[in-house]
Amino acid sequence: MNKSYRSILIIITALFFMWGFLTCMNDILIPYLKDLFDLKYWQAMLVQFAFFGAYFIGSLLYFILSLRIGDPINKIGYQNGIVIGLVMSSIGCFLFYPAAQFEMYGFFLSALFILGLGFTMLQIAANPYVSILGPSETASSRLNMSQAFNSLGTTIAPILGGYLIFDLFFTETTTGDAVKIPYLVFGGMFLVMAIIFKLIKLPNFVNDSEIVKGVGALRFPNLSLGTFAIFAYVGGEVAIGSFLINFIGLEEIMGLEEATAKNYLAYYWGGSMIGRFSGAISLSEMSNGKKYLSMLFAATFSFLLIFSIADISFDIVLPYIGIIALNFIAFVIGKSVAGRTLAIFAFVSVVLISVAMFTSGSFAMWALIGVGIFNSIMWPNIFTLGIKGLGKYTGQGSSLLVMAILGGALIPLVQGFIADIIGVQMSFIVPVVCYLYILFYGFYCSRLKFEEKEEEKQAVGVMH
């Protein structure tokens, strides 16, 4: 790879890390803002509604524009698209200061909405750059590396972000101030990166795929059903992460304070990192012996990384090792077939959530945390299955699937309403329904009569 391209790739990889970090910070903000404004659960879930709702609004506007004038990014350039996304993200972070100063919940939600719009632009613009910064035959490898750092950001955020908000900057008298300095720093970092991306020279990239009018892509059942599957997946994953701190804080579970419970979030989100590394290796051309040995090494390394970050003793996290072993078995049974593996992972997720609902103590806690590692391959598998066979409608289908991220806005809100009525533990019936639908979709696609192309198969190792 060209040395200058390598430097650019490092900068973009740092960008992937940052938006993963900031996305997971929402799980810290939810209990913080719930206490600050004495909110009900459904009101606290407006945090995710505002943030992920921005993904839907931004993607919808982008989709409409693409039908009328062609791909907007093609017209302004991917480099300018990244700069715009970074500036918008910076503005969203800076708005946390006046929101905290005036202690207005609506102001916080507005800041999160703008931050979400910025991330939407980054999602649209940054991913293609990774694929063109070097030889095409190693594009998948570069994407996996950058996305792995995104997962690293979601793993570190609960620990570092929780420390900043619940410990370092938290005071009893001016609790609203706890988010001022952290988000000013985040905003400053995005602004600096925007300046860097404006000044550096990036290769030109033009997407010459056909622009089609109408929504003909929805004629394909694997896409229309897959859109709901993405909705269910993002909604279920975000809902569990949003409620995890409150769940661990229940007396019948662990009764832990927020400052301590936030450490366990690292295992939930870190599970995706473990599963994605394993998923990428499972797609390699290595012999089964070398493949399984490499998967074991990657899982061990990822676990030790999470263990070193989270301040939890080894004897407490032992059950998590059993969940990693279960994940390995699920990969072996799935045999890297997208539909089959998706169905197996969704089935295990349903079982784990059910255990969390109907048991107590650390057994229930680790069962719910364990869902994180089985979320790992769901986005790429659903996405790959959803766009398979679309031909000229592939670009349009991809836009529709990105719009389905709206699930992250609505599903936590629904669970919040139910939690206010029947309690937090039983409210996890909502994610159960989500994963049951994903189970159906995986089973349905596993029976479709078309061949999986090699390039589609490679996409299974790439996360959203």
TrEMBL record:
Chief place where the protein resides: membrane
GO CC annotations, alphabetized:
plasma membrane
Which one Pfam family would you cite for this protein?
MFS_1
Q: Which Gene3D superfamilies match?
A: MFS general substrate transporter like domains
Provide the GO MF annotations for this entry: transmembrane transporter activity
Q: Which UniProt keywords apply?
A: Cell membrane, Membrane, Transmembrane, Transmembrane helix
Q: Where in the cell is it found?
A: Cell inner membrane
Q: How does it sit in the membrane?
A: Multi-pass membrane protein
PROSITE patterns from the xrefs?
MFS
Its transmembrane ranges are: 7-29, 41-65, 77-99, 105-127, 148-169, 181-200, 220-245, 265-283, 292-310, 316-334, 341-358, 364-387, 399-418, 424-444
Start and end residues of each Major facilitator superfamily (MFS) profile domain: 8-449
**What SUPFAM superfamilies does the record point to?**
MFS general substrate transporter (SSF103473)
Indicate the secretion signal residues: none
Q: Which InterPro entries match?
A: MFS (IPR011701), MFS_dom (IPR020846), MFS_trans_sf (IPR036259), MFS_TsgA-like (IPR050375)
User: Which PANTHER family did the record assign?
Assistant: L-FUCOSE-PROTON SYMPORTER, PROTEIN TSGA
Q: What is this protein called?
A: FHS family L-fucose permease-like MFS transporter
